[in-house]
Design goal:
The chain is of the alpha+beta class and 150 residues long. It has one domain. Helix content is 27%, strand content 25%. The protein is built from 4 helices and 6 strands. The chain has a 6-stranded mixed β-sheet, covered by helices on one side. A hairpin with a 2-residue loop joins strand 4 and strand 5. The longest helix has 13 residues.
């Protein structure tokens, strides 16, 4: 049996900012929680960055066409925003229960989700620490890359 990670329900200030219901805003929430920045400030910054994204590529046009972070943000936009805040992307697969995440603040990119680890405690709106286990035994989620303050 896998060791469970402590979990704290945390919406990153979404409700306080006046938002209701469920949505796919995990990037905005994770950044707001980890950086201790008001949710609305993160939302507005991601929106502006995406709206003014430069380039002529298919990806650049897609980013400008749908700049709202309400249902997620393009990973390149999130990464660029985090860079401006002094955060860096660290590649390499780890598990959410890795000793790396036991001390400090981290934004973790798992499969189709961004979440936050603060001093070994998972902070999110739902407890996303275990895989679904449909075809195999449930295991602790893999972090494909994470962001840490430089």
């Amino acid at each position: 049996m896998e060791k469970k990670i402590s979990f704290e329900e945390n919406d990153g200030g979404r409700k306080t900012a006046g938002y209701k219901g469920n949505t796919g805003d995990c990037v905005t929430r994770a950044i707001a929680i980890t950086t201790e920045t008001p949710y609305q400030d993160v939302y507005d910054s991601l929106f502006e960055l995406a709206k003014n994204w430069e380039g002529r590529s298919k990806l650049a046009r897609a980013i400008r066409k749908n700049p709202s972070p309400r249902n997620g943000a393009f990973p390149v936009v999130a990464e660029k925003y985090l860079e401006t805040l002094g955060w860096k992307k660290v590649t390499g697969k780890l598990r959410l229960d890795d000793k790396k995440f036991q001390s400090g603040r981290y934004i973790c990119k798992t499969r189709k989700h961004f979440t936050t680890m603060i001093d070994g405690v998972l902070n999110d709106t739902w407890n996303c620490q275990m895989t679904s286990g449909i075809y195999a035994e449930k295991t602790i989620v893999t972090v494909f890359h994470h962001y840490e303050k430089t």
